[in-house]
Each structure stands twice: as structure tokens, then as C-alpha cells.
Design brief:
By secondary structure, the chain is an alpha+beta fold. The chain is built from twelve helices and 18 strands. It is elongated, with a radius of gyration of 30 Å.
């Protein structure tokens, strides 16, 4: 009875957890559009709320800002298109503003069987606008007008990283009012981080001073990858020297706008970054670790939201030159690349409260994958390793179950003796367990041990971009999606039935019937799980059957020898 209650509790927990996740997928929080004809652009305070004004939620002292203008994305591509191709990025830069207005990831198709249709992050479409912008804002000279972004020039409109070339530089230039500004993008082979460098030369007779703003802006239109019950975070986040990782949801931005509260209690930030997250993919601005930044967020009409930072003041004396730089990451959540940019940027990969186990699982699976080149077999080997690690615990549990099987005749005798007197039957059963030194919950241990590993592996499958669209064998083309033909759930039901046959049956016929139904309940529940997770459970059950058969047989032999 205790074992039945425990298993039912596990089912209730998993069902409730997954229903909550499913509800989150089907009911994303999307603020109501405030108006339909307003799209922000770099503008004067008369046309949009000034991000550096006391009425905004910029985490800084307004007096320190030299201009009330701040960077926001242009409403349409009016400048010249500059096309850039590397081995991992396919980009378009708009010469007006010099920002990336389109970013495709050729190595990550939207669907596994359409490689010609890549994932698109940055774009300038009305319903999914998602852009990164950076702009110098000063007291004069740049941009040329507060109502218009500067129009850059370049030597070429098509750039491509050639075979054998490790990096590619794209230099944009603007001149006016005694200033020459070069905005340089540096792309690296195999890397999604882009160096964004500014070089400012002052040929005027008076000093120029200003700040570099870097901002991410997107429409709150969640991108949902259809992989079962996953509900990944969709929104902004940031990090500082004092705050390793903090989510700033679009709902938070709405509240900040209403209350005019800063994002952080400390207005001056070092060793930080700002990011926009979606399932599997990320964009982030990362400044030099030693630079002071002022973080801000902004909720615009038309369901647009922005998070950004203002850099330290730059002063360029007459006849002098100054430089400033940032890094822009736009790509998949690859742990190694994120850590290389900032030690805390990989925290955007959310493995839940069991992240230490999830991280260990992914580390082990990555090493196995380096040998086998198949994530499905990596899951199989990982499952076997887990079972071997807990072999002693399993041995104790299966011996306890073998003892319980031996007690079946005595349990039947107690039932004949006490009949329907449940109180006396329960008391006599507990005395029998005590005299025979049997733990009735010992058989539950294998199930209990699996739960945290099951949840941890679930998050690895749900959040690791390496396993996105990862094939296994034959009909399984994506381990992060459900089995299209439900073959693995059926195999799981079969293995659970076999496990039940090897385990002692409950003395109550009604309980025995309920236990026989449990594999079907689990099978139906797991039909919508990622195939990789069901594969783990099938392999786990199979190895458990072999272990139980072997340990029970050894135990029975030892009993016969003693007799």
C-alpha cells in the first residue's frame, strides 16, 4: 500500500508540473498594444520619452547625460543594405545608423528537414521586430541631427568570410561637423560574438563629448519551439558584478515605466551585460569589464520593449582621437562561447533548480558524443552510467523486494486470519515486517532515486541547443520532440509491465489491479514528452530489469545455500 501511494504521488507531482508548464506555453503574457501608428526611432524628446530623463527608468543620474536622445531602432530600412556572410552568420547592416537589421543562423534550421530555412533572430518586421542598436550621443556633431540617425558609408556592400580566413572586418564611416566616426564590425570564424569598435577623430577647434548607447529592442511576441511541455523564458536579462543573473521581464518593464524605478539599486555597473532571451537563442551587449555602465529599460507602445546601457563619457579634444568598443553576441546558447565572452553569460541557459545535476549530465554527454557522434546513444550510455553509480542502492532495494516476495504466503495467511478487520491486519503486517526485518518502502527507492535525475535530464533536453533537432535512429529525427509514432512510450509500457511481474504483488486485489494500470498511465503521460527523455526511461527500465533479475537470483541462491 505504501509503495502504491508513493508511485501515485510521483504521478501526481509530474502531472501537475507538466500541466503548469503547458498552461504557461498556451498563455504567454503579452501586454495590450497601446497604439498602432507609433514606432520609435532616434528622436527628440518631443517625439518619444527621453531615456535619460527623470521620467524614464534609466538607472543613472540624469545630470550625467549630455543629451536627451538615446538609441532606438529605426522604423524601416532606408539606408543602403550591406550584406555580410560568415560560416555561422548571415547578416544585413543598414547604412542608416550602421546597425544590424537582419541576422540569420544558417547552421540552425527552423525545422530539421528544411535546412534552407534558417532561424532568424534580428529582423525589422512589424510583428516580430528584434534589433540591436548602438549609437554615439553627444552634445554636438554626432548624430548629425537628433531627428535622424547618421548615414554611414562603406567601400563595399557585400562581405564574405573566405575559406582560410579567420576574421572579417567591415568598416563604416561618417563625417560631419568636424568629426570623423568609424564604426567597425569584426567577425570571427565559428564564433557568434561580434566586436563592435568605434573610432572618433575630432578635427574641430572645440572638444567633443558624448556617450555610447547600446540597446536591444524587440516585440513581445514569444517564439515557441514545439517541443512538448517546455516553457522557456522569453524576455530580457542582465548581469553585474553584484548580480550574477537577473531576469527583467516585459511585465517588469511595464511596472518600471509606471513607477519610474531603476533596474538596479546601484546606478553604476561594472562587469555586466544586458541580453534578450528566447528558447535556445540569445542576443547580448557585453562592454569591457572595467567600464562603468548605466543600465536602463523602456516599454514603448506597439508592444515594443528595450533594454540597454549607456557607457562612460567620452571626451575627444581638438585634433585627438578616442576609441570605445563593445561585444555583440547574436546566436545560440552555446555554453563555451557564452563563457568566453563573460563568465556569467552562460547563466542564461536555465536548467532549473537542479542545474548542478543538469550541468554534469551535459558535460558527460558531451564527452560521450565526441566519441559516438550521436546524442541518442549518449543518453543511453549516460543512463547505464547512472545505474552503475547507484548499483549498491539498487541491490538493497531489489533484495528488499525479494524478501517481500518471500513473505507473500505469510501475508496471505494474515489476510485469511483477520479478514476484513483492516486495523488488525495492518498491525499484524507491521509486526511481520519488523520480525522479518523488511522495509516495505525499500522497493520504492529505485523510483525515488530516478526523480531528480529525470527532472535534470528533462531540462538538459529542453534547454540545451546542442540537442535541438538531434537525431537518434530510424524514425527519431529530433530528440527534443515527442516520438512521432509513440514507439518509445509503448516500449516504456512494456518494460514497466515486466518490472511489475518481477516485483511482489500487493496483497489487496484492488491494489494489484491499480498497479497493473500504472504502466498505461505513465505511457499516456509520456507520449508528449521529448523522445530523449522517454529513451532515458526505457533504457533505465531495461537495465533495472536486468539488475533486478540478477540480484534477485543471487539472493535466492544465497537463501537456498543457508537452508
Amino acid at each position: 500500500m505504501e509503495q502504491l501511494r508513493f508511485i501515485l504521488l510521483v504521478i501526481l507531482f509530474l502531472t501537475g508540473y507538466l500541466l503548469w508548464k503547458t498552461w504557461g506555453d498556451e498563455h504567454p503574457t503579452v501586454p495590450v498594444t497601446q497604439q498602432t501608428d507609433y514606432i520609435p526611432s532616434a528622436a527628440s524628446p518631443g517625439n518619444l520619452p527621453a531615456l535619460a530623463s527623470p521620467h524614464s527608468n534609466i538607472a543613472t543620474n540624469p545630470a550625467a547625460v549630455t543629451s536627451t536622445a538615446a538609441p532606438v531602432a529605426s522604423s524601416s530600412t532606408q539606408g543602403q543594405r550591406i550584406n555580410i556572410k560568415t560560416d555561422v552568420l548571415d547578416l544585413v547592416i543598414d547604412s542608416k545608423g550602421g546597425d544590424i537589421v537582419q541576422a540569420e543562423l544558417p547552421q540552425y534550421p527552423k525545422v530539421w528537414n528544411t535546412p534552407q530555412d534558417p532561424v532568424i533572430l534580428f529582423n525589422n518586421l512589424d510583428d516580430s521586430r528584434y534589433l540591436a542598436s548602438s549609437i554615439l550621443v553627444g552634445d554636438k556633431g554626432f548624430p548629425s541631427s537628433l531627428n535622424q540617425q547618421a548615414v554611414f558609408s562603406t567601400d563595399n556592400t557585400n562581405y564574405q568570410l573566405q575559406p582560410g580566413q579567420d576574421s572579417l572586418k567591415v568598416v563604416l564611416q561618417w563625417q560631419g561637423n568636424g568629426l570623423t566616426v568609424e564604426k567597425e564590425y569584426v567577425f570571427h570564424r565559428g564564433i557568434y560574438a561580434i566586436d563592435v569598435n568605434y573610432r572618433i577623430r575630432n578635427t574641430a577647434t572645440t572638444p567633443w563629448q558624448g556617450n555610447l548607447y547600446s540597446q536591444l529592442m524587440r516585440v513581445n511576441n514569444p517564439v515557441v519551439e514545439k517541443n512538448g511541455f517546455t516553457h522557456a523564458y522569453f524576455g530580457a536579462s542582465l548581469s553585474t558584478a553584484d548580480t550574477s543573473y537577473k531576469k527583467i521581464s516585459f511585465k517588469d518593464m511595464d511596472k518600471l515605466k509606471q513607477n519610474a524605478e531603476p533596474l538596479l539599486s546601484n546606478p553604476i555597473v561594472t562587469k555586466g551585460w544586458v541580453a534578450m532571451q528566447q528558447h535556445y537563442f540569445l542576443s547580448a551587449w557585453v562592454p569591457p569589464a572595467d567600464s562603468n555602465q548605466h543600465f536602463y529599460s523602456q516599454a514603448y507602445p506597439n508592444n515594443l520593449y528595450a533594454i540597454g546601457m549607456m557607457g562612460p563619457q567620452i571626451v575627444v579634444a581638438p585634433g585627438q582621437e578616442e576609441t570605445t568598443q563593445m561585444k555583440l553576441y547574436v546566436g545560440p546558447e552555446v555554453n563555451e562561447q557564452l563563457q568566453a565572452i563573460s563568465p556569467k553569460l552562460n547563466l542564461t541557459i536555465d536548467y532549473g533548480f537542479l542545474w548542478p545535476i543538469s550541468t554534469l549530465f551535459l558535460w558527460v554527454m558531451t564527452r560521450i558524443y565526441a566519441i559516438l557522434h550521436n546524442w541518442g546513444w549518449s543518453i543511453v550510455i549516460l543512463t547505464i552510467l547512472i545505474k552503475l553509480a547507484f548499483y549498491k542502492l539498487s541491490s538493497m532495494s531489489y533484495k528488499s523486494m525479494a524478501k517481500m516476495r518471500e513473505l507473500q504466503p505469510k501475508m496471505a495467511a494474515l489476510k485469511d486470519r483477520f479478514g476484513d478487520d483492516k486495523q488488525k491486519m495492518s498491525q499484524a503486517t507491521m509486526e511481520l515486517y519488523k520480525s522479518e526485518k523488511v522495509n516495505p518502502l525499500g522497493g520504492c527507492l529505485p523510483v525515488a532515486v530516478q526523480i531528480p535525475f529525470f527532472i535534470a535530464l528533462y531540462w538538459v533536453l529542453a534547454e540545451s541547443v546542442a540537442l535541438r533537432q538531434a537525431p537518434f535512429i530510424f524514425w527519431i529525427h529530433d530528440l527534443s520532440l515527442r516520438d512521432p509514432y509513440y514507439i518509445l512510450p509503448i516500449l516504456m509500457i512494456v518494460t514497466m509491465f515486466i518490472q511489475q511481474k518481477l516485483s511482489p504483488a500487493p496483497p489487496d486485489p484492488m491494489q494489484a489491479k491499480m498497479m497493473m494500470v500504472l504502466p498505461l498511465v505513465f505511457g499516456v503521460l509520456f507520449m508528449m514528452f521529448p523522445a530523449g527523455l522517454v529513451l532515458y526511461w526505457v533504457v533505465n527500465n531495461t537495465v533495472s530489469i536486468l539488475q533486478q533479475w540478477y540480484i534477485t537470483r543471487c539472493y535466492e541462491k544465497s537463501i537456498h545455500k543457508r537452508r
